Task: structure prediction
Amino acid sequence: MPNNSIEKPVKGLWEAFGRFDFEAVRQFLHNDFVAEWPQSNERIRGCDNFIALNKNYPGRWQVTIRRIVSHEDLVISEVALSHKEQIVYAVSFFTVAEGKIVHAVEYWGESSDPPAWRSRWVERM
Result:
């Protein structure tokens, strides 16, 4: 069963990013916020660094929230970010405490064309 109150800061975060309202992002992040991106082996400590990094990311992306699920203090989101003809997907695991996001582990993947060899077993979405 979804816990809408624990999901609120995650939904608010993605909606603020979608509006490019980076100062609004701050209200959803805990003072001790830390984000980890295992694929690039990076850790971002603090709201200011996280907001600055996203604010300075090149291009204007459209954010589509595909789903948000939660259990206890964990909220998982799946989003699609599109810019021109590129789509990037992110699956994020957020820990929420005191109504704010304390920790995030995010996995980012760019869309790609599948290899031809497996076409007989799959269908394109």
In short: Strands lie at 29-37, 42-45, 62-71, 74-83, 86-97, 100-110.
